[in-house]
Specification:
CATH superfamily of the largest domain: MFS general substrate transporter like domains
Distance between the termini: 20 Å
CATH topology of the largest domain: Growth Hormone, Chain: A
Order of helices and strands: HHHEHEEEHHHHHHHHHHHHHHHHH
CATH architecture of the largest domain: Up-down Bundle
Largest sheet: 2 strands, antiparallel
Number of helices: 21
Number of domains: 3
Structural class: mainly alpha
Strand order of the largest sheet: 1-4
Mean pLDDT: 88
Shape: elongated
């Protein structure tokens, strides 16, 4: 007897499974609030060089002081990173006559003055991460995703070795501790280190939540539970816009998005360990207790099963802990799955975070952009729920990612004055991008066997986080050519989407238990 057959007897989608899924959705809401926090944490308000006070300025207004001290851009706005070495009093007569001589222009010498109308403070204004230091500002997102990348490897292995629930609890506790330490940062170095460690911890949450829920659900409801869990990511997206709108000071914003981890830790008490994992690792007594509890909660009170019957379900004599990431590449079919799914994950994450971290290039204000990007994800998920069950996982995955790339590419061609059209294309692109992300989580968890599922999810998540870490740095390419970042996102998404056609279809196929089920 396979575990799928046992689920049919004890109820594969009853009160027991619904309770587990809803509790696991709490940490899921919290994830985007950290993963996309960079948009608000490191936002750079408009700024100009600080001008030291001089006796000659006594009778001048602030606007006049700026006119004689700071050169203008061709569009008439003041430059952010440069000032005149000496006040240019003649500009008071005609400010449109900008000096031709660049030798009188220098970089800011006395720091910067920031517009605080939108943000009380951000890490940019706290540590002057602008102009020459702009790269350090973008790097905070990269440090976080490097942490998430490392965490994917660590927690993928540990959750296959020591169990899903114990590692989820550990990652939530660490997320709470490091998140609060980030909020208390007194230097850029401290923030960079604590954000990296927060990324490591949150990676465990991201990685374990979906398989822990899925391993209790039957084949028929697997897609539904995957989509339901991912809808809570979109709710977290919308909540981030609201929290960031209400909390404009970066220390308190970090406290506000980290606090909910405490609620998740408390609620985890009611979530059982995965019975599939317990059986695969020979912990039959615990599995037996959870299976009977599941049957009782789902109203199957007359159900009985012996621990010996569960013991016979263990597909391999080899204990689950003796498998490693190398096992993903030892056999030919599994090797092909691992290489192709890695490429797809990279493309999905790279394009998703590329779009999500470009809120200001969207035509709306950043809070509204963040909220709209969250809202559009929900219909995208609903449509995917129908498509993955009708068209199949492979076609849905490939086309969602290819269309994401084409939408990003289209906005390079559409002229800037067509803001409405650009906004519509961007929203469509974000919808396709989220559809691709929703599908890849579900698809990957179905491609790998139980004994290697967390290792598989850990490896693909590692590759995805590499994509997430590189995505914010690509924005720095706009100094080479304005459209180069968008073209990079477009090219990667289309190429990686095409690779998805090489993966096997998993629609209505049993979850594989051992490596021989795949081969």
């Amino acid at each position: 007897m396979k575990f799928e057959d046992l689920l049919l007897e004890i109820g594969g989608f009853g009160r027991f499974q619904i309770l587990i899924l809803f509790i696991l959705c709490l940490p899921r809401i919290n994830l985007p609030m950290h993963f996309l926090l960079h948009n608000f944490l490191a936002a750079t308000p408009s700024h100009h060089c600080a001008i030291p006070h001089q006796e000659a300025f006594v009778n001048l207004t602030m606007e006049e002081v700026l006119i004689i001290s700071i050169p203008r851009e061709p569009d008439g706005t003041f430059r952010s990173c440069e000032m005149f070495s000496q006040p240019q009093f003649h500009l008071l007569l005609n400010s449109s006559l900008q000096p031709e001589n660049n030798s009188i222009i220098q970089h800011c010498q006395h720091g910067w003055v920031y517009d605080h109308s939108q943000f009380t403070s951000t890490i940019s204004t706290q540590w002057d991460l602008v102009c020459e230091q702009r790269g350090l500002n973008q790097a905070t997102a990269t440090f976080f995703f490097i942490g998430v990348t490392m965490g994917a490897v660590v927690f993928g292995y540990l959750s296959d070795r020591f169990g899903r629930k114990a590692m989820l609890l550990l990652s939530l506790v660490c997320s709470l501790v490091f998140g609060m330490l980030s909020a208390a940062s007194v230097s850029y170095s401290m923030l960079a280190i604590t954000r990296t460690l927060t990324g490591v911890a949150l990676s465990g949450v991201s990685l374990i939540v979906l398989p822990l829920g899925m391993e209790w659900v039957d084949i028929q409801h697997r897609t539904f539970s995957g989509i339901l869990t991912s809808i809570f990511w979109s709710i977290g997206n919308m909540l981030l816009a609201m929290v960031a709108y209400l909390v404009r000071e970066w220390h308190w914003l970090l406290v506000a998005v980290t606090g909910p981890c405490l609620l998740s830790i408390v609620c985890l008490w009611w979530v059982p360990e995965s019975a599939r994992w317990l059986i695969a690792n020979g912990k039959v007594k615990q599995a037996h207790r959870h299976v009977l509890r599941c049957a009782r909660m789902n109203g199957r009170k007359d159900f009985t099963v012996s621990p010996e019957a569960l013991r016979r379900m263990a597909t391999d004599k080899k204990p689950g802990g003796s498998y490693s990431y190398i096992s993903l590449f030892r056999t030919p079919v599994l090797r092909k799955i691992s290489l192709c799914s890695g490429a797809v994950w990279f493309g999905v994450a790279f394009s998703y975070y590329g779009m999500s971290m470009n809120l200001t290039g969207f035509g709306l204000n950043m809070y509204l952009s963040q909220f709209v990007f969250g809202v559009i994800e929900i219909p995208a998920k609903m449509i995917m729920y129908v498509l993955v069950n009708r068209v199949g996982r492979r076609q849905s995955q490939a086309w969602a990612l290819i269309l994401t790339g084409l939408c990003i590419g289209a906005n390079v061609i559409i002229p800037k004055p067509f803001t409405s059209l650009r906004s519509v294309v961007a929203i469509m692109g974000k919808g396709f991008s989220e559809a691709a992300f929703t599908t890849v989580f579900l698809y990957t968890s179905e491609l790998y066997p139980t004994i290697l599922r967390q290792n598989g999810m850990g490896y693909t998540s590692f590759v995805a986080r590499l994509g997430g870490a590189l995505a914010p740095l690509v924005f720095l390419l706009d100094e080479v050519w304005r459209s180069l970042p968008e073209l990079t996102y477009c090219g990667v998404a289309v190429c990686c989407g095409s690779v998805a056609f090489l993966l096997p279809e998993t629609l209505n196929v049993r979850l594989p238990e051992g490596i021989e089920d795949i081969e």
